[in-house]
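Re: the 404-residue chain
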Amino acid sequence: MHSVSVPAHQFSRYAETYLQTENRDRHRTQRTLLDSLQLACRSYTRVVLRLRAQAEAEARAAAAAQSSPTSPARGRGLPSVRSTTSVNSVASPKKAFSRSTSRAPSPTSSYGHSYPGHARMPSVPGQPIGGAAFHSPLFRIRRAPLLQVFVPSPEGDWLSDTSVLECEKELKRAGVVPLLRPGDVVWDTAVGDEGNMGRMVWDGGYLIDLDYSYSRSGDLPKYLPTLAFPPSYFHRVVRTMGSGNPICHIDVAPWGEEIAANLQLIQDRVKTETPQGGHHMVVRWVHRSSFTLRPPVNGKPLRLQVPRDVGPGPGPGGVWYVDPGWYGTVVVEAEGTNEGLADLQARCRGAFPPRALGVAVNLSPERAAKEAAQKSVFRILREKSRPGEIWIRTVTTKERLLPP
C-alpha cells in the first residue's frame, strides 16, 4: 500500500507539486497521481478500521475465555477469531463502541484512597491465555486510530472549511463513515507531518479541529469528554509538545465533596530545567486532593453528564459513559497559593464553604459559559500516573495562548 510504503513527507511534496501545476485539473499526470494517493489513503483507512474490529473481536473472545472456567481455550491458547465486521457495512452502536478495560491492576499507592476490590481489577483483555496478544504497527487496542485522507489544501497548513468538508467527503467515498466513532483521529496527509498539522477529530457527525488555546501544536477540543476515553487513548496520536502532559477536560463538580474532604496543602519537589539546559530540584507548595471512581456493582457503565454543546455519545440515545480505564483514584493538584485554592474551590461548585467575595459582577451568558468551560481544563501528569491512579493538574487562564 502506498500509505505504508511512501514516507509521510512525500505526501506533502506531491500535494505541493500538484497545487503549483497550472491547469492541474486538466493535467493528466498530476490528476492520475492525485487519484492514486487518494485511493491509497482510503484503502489504508479501511485496513485500520478492519484491524480495530479484529482486535476488539479477539479481546472479547479472550475475556469470555478467561471468565469461563470450563473453556477449552484455557491453557491451550485461543483458536483464531474471525470478525464478521465489514468496513463497508454499518456496525451496530453497541459493537462499534465496545471497550473493555485494558488497565493493569493498580499497585497499592502511598497516597491513593483505595477501596475494596480496587486492587483486583480484571486482567488485560486482548491477551489470550497461552496465546499471543493482537499486535499490529497500524493499530493498538484501546488507542485512537489514525485514519488518513489526501486533500491538497490551497490555503497551506491551516485547513479551510472547504478543505475540511472535502476530507469528510473522502471518508464517505471510502465507505467508512458508519464505522467511525467519536474520538477517531483523521489526518490529511497532504498537509504534512509536523506536529499535529492536518489532524482532526471525529465527534460523531463531523470533523472538528484541535484546540490551540493552550498549545501551538493543538490539543483535544472540549467537545470530547475526556472521561469517556482511556487516559492514554490519544497518546502519540495527538502529539503533545513541551512537558508531554496533555490537556484534558473533566468536570470534577460531582466529586466536589470528596475533593474537599481529602484536600491537603503539602510541599512537593519538582525537577525544572534551567535556560542553560541543566536540571535542578525546586520545592513548592501545592494543594492536593483526590476522588475515587468506583466500578458499578451491577456491572453497568457509569453514565457521564456532558455539556449541551457536546455531540451524541456512542451509547443508546447518545449517552456518554465513563471508560473503565479511569476506575480508581484520581489525584488532583492545584497551585499552593490562595488563587490556586480559590480556583479549585470554584471547580467543585458548592462543596466548599462560600468565600468572601468583592463586588458582584454580572456576566453575560456567553461569558459565563466560557468561564464554566475554563473550570474543566486540566493536564494529565504522565510521569506520576499509573494504572488505577491518574494524576491531573489544574490549568488556569495564565497558561492560555489565545484570549478567551
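The radius of gyration is 23 Å.
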